Amino acid sequence: MTGKKLFITLAVILGLALSAPQAKAKQDILFGGASIVGVYYQVALQLSNIMNKHQGDKYNFIGRPTGGSVFNINALERGAFDFGVAQSDRNWQAYNGAAEWEGKPITSLRSLFSMHPETVMLVARKDTGIEKVEDIKGKRVNIGNPGSGQRGNATDVLRIYGIDPASDFRAEGLQHHEAARALVDRNIDAFFYTIGNPSAAIEEPATSVDIRMVHLNHPGIKEMVEEKPYYIMTTIPGGMYRGVDEDIETYAVTATVVTSENVADDVVYDLVKTVFENLDEVRAAHASFRNLKVEEMLQGLSAPLHPGAEKYYKEQGWM
Ligand code: GLU
Fold it and tell me: What distance in angstroms lies between residue 195's CA and the mean position of ligand 1's atoms?
């Protein structure tokens, strides 16, 4: 092609490109979950799918695996994510400047709605002989990666049982997909995990090795639960996981969808409206979402409501 022809060809292409009707740019929205095997990742993925199905002309929602609750709360503050899933206790601590956030509260944190309840669990391989919390002394136990929500729950449980993670056992900081594998491979003896039920994150190791679930029912736990509005005592029904036939006493938090005050009201409104208008689709998307109820989804929110969510709830007469 001569230089002139090339020039004409390029000019024609450019002209066509400029005159073609431009598709309106969709807004990319990042939604943080947690470990790839957990339920949070399913919240991020499934709500993203539902948004892309019903509001795909406006948005491109992307569900991403992350380090968990603490990571998500911090990433929302930095503006790295638009939405994230986080435990109700961690939201409270972040907004009020407690635990990791002592002296540096995340005042930009905002709530949308609650999802499923999550139980605090200590799962051991049966052949380790771990039957009660005290038995983890001298063993290798995963307490969770620093970005996870469960690390704080594990820390509370250990403090209440008077066990020091620095000296009484070997504490690991693995993400859950690594911990489940390490349990099966005998590289750890037990793990703490705070997660909705039933979940593949527990089902998978439970089908590969014989497991035992440990009761977390110390009077000190019951006292803590009484004191904090975001905890409840609960049981994991026997038969939920292979090899765990008795009911396991423990306590629970709520998984919540959170955002930042800097995310636009209409984006939050569109997500909330789409979720509640298509709640049957949400319920069908994962076993942990099966029992979602509107009244309960508006409870347990420990950071203030985002105005975009509040607008929808007021329109519905729910508040
Ligand atoms: N509760 C865990 C956390 O906050 C995540 C559980 C899940 O992945 O479902 O990190």
Answer: 5
Give residue 83 CA to ligand 1 midpoint distance, Å. Answer: 15
The whole-model pTM stands at 0.92
- Mutate-to-test residue for ligand 1 from 150, 153, 177, 231, highest number of ligand atoms within 8 A of CB: 150
pLDDT digits (tens, 9 = 90+) for 241-289: 999 999 999 999 999 999 999 999 999 999 999 999 999 999 999 999 9
206 inside domain: yes
Amino acid at 201: A
Identify any residues that bridge with 64 across adjacent strands, giving them in sequence order.
32
Position 297 pLDDT exceeds 60: yes
Q: What is the span of the domain harbouring residue 212?
A: 118-253
The pick from 31, 36, 37, 39 for probing ligand 1's pocket by mutation, whose C-beta has the most ligand atoms within 8 angstroms, reads: 39
The domain tally of the chain equals 2
What is the whole-number distance in angstroms between the Cα of residue 32 and the centre of ligand 1?
11
Query: Looking at 212, 229, 253, which one is the last position of a domain?
Result: 253
Which residues on adjacent β-strands are paired with residue 29?
A: 61
Where among 222, 238, 253 does a domain terminate? Answer: 253
* Residue 23 located in a structural domain: no
Written as one string, the DSSP assignment of 232-287 is EEEEE-TTSBTTB-S-EEEEEEEEEEEEETTS-HHHHHHHHHHHHHTHHHHHHH-G
Give the model confidence (pLDDT) of 145-168 as tens digits.
999 999 999 999 999 999 999 999
For residues 129 and 229, membership in a common domain is answered with yes
Q: Atom 3 in ligand 1: which residue has the minimum CA distance?
A: 149
Residue at 216 is within a domain: yes
Give the CATH number, domain containing residue 83.
Answer: 3.40.190.10
Residue-wise pLDDT tens digits, 90-108: 999 999 999 999 999 999 9
Nearest protein Cα to ligand 1, atom 9: 39
Residue 4, pLDDT score: 55
CA distance 181 to 80: 29
C-beta 89 within 6 A of ligand 1: no
Residue 302 inside a domain? The answer is yes
Cα–ligand 1 centroid distance for 66 (angstroms):
10
257: which 2 tokens? 């969808």
